[in-house]
Amino acid sequence: MKTTITPVGALTADHVRDALLAATAAPSLHNSQPWRFHCTPSAIELHADRSRALEVADPEHRELMLACGAALLNLRLAIRASGTLPDVRLFPDPAQPDLLATVRPAAQRPATPAERELAAAILRRRTNRKPFHPDPVPAALQAALRHAAEAERGWLAVLDPPQRLVLCGLARQAHQAQLDDPAFVAEWRRWTGRSGEDSEGVPARSSGPIPEPQDEYVLRDFSGGSARPRVPGKDFEPDPMICVLGSFQDSKHAQLQAGTAMQRVLLTATANGLAASFLSQVVEVPATRRELRHLIGGGLWPQIVLRIGYGSPVPATPRRPLEEVVTGELAPHRSG
């Protein structure tokens, strides 16, 4: 059994399939993949799939919106790589609040080298929870990451050493608060430490080493208890680049745009040989998110905390097949 995808506007069936595969390669909380796509003859619709929300870690569905924003940017870039301009409308129908965006193929125009570079980085991007090398991220690359966030109406603050020290304490506080919540722990266990055959959740192979008391930032064990101790003497990087990515408001619209900004930052990092992982617990616990907002000035809304540096290769996390996330112009047929 195989699936044939029909054209959408000026996009060929192959272009549509490539664009959908790119969209579903976006990162999401615990690899929950909380999105659906509906294809019509003229557009690709992005819908939030709230049945896949993590109600304990993300009760307001803020991280769900970030994930969908990341998927939207991938979709846009893949369409641009095909030589087509995408016409994107956010929240086009007030009667359908979970219809987050419609993307219609518009005029034909060759992609720029920068657009092709970002599109090529989509399938290479990984969440890297392992220790990074100690080499610092050059100032020019830090500036490029900030500009990437600004291109999507977001902002990226690179924390200085005193701010990182405060963040370290907030990360520990948030981590302990979540461990003290049995509902969080039960949800965490459902989504992490998965086998390599699962198409969702975080597989054990994508975990970092067992957290140790001296670790300042990387506290979570995604392995389901199967992670190995690190090699003696191989600790996490001593001076990590820690960034806070956020928005100027905290509405659903702003959160969706923050997701596109987050993904442009991650793809820019990937294209420049950098790795990244998330310190999500700081923004998942309301008390520490309020403290983080105060830390970065009080007038901006932190949406995610990123750890960025030079890492070793890690495997991709699995994705659900398109047949599970796409409806509409999908015509199944049997091949002979």
From TrEMBL:
Question: What protein does this entry describe?
Answer: Nitroreductase
The Gene Ontology terms for molecular function here are:
oxidoreductase activity
Annotated segments matching region Disordered: 194-215
Q: Give the species.
A: Saccharopolyspora hordei
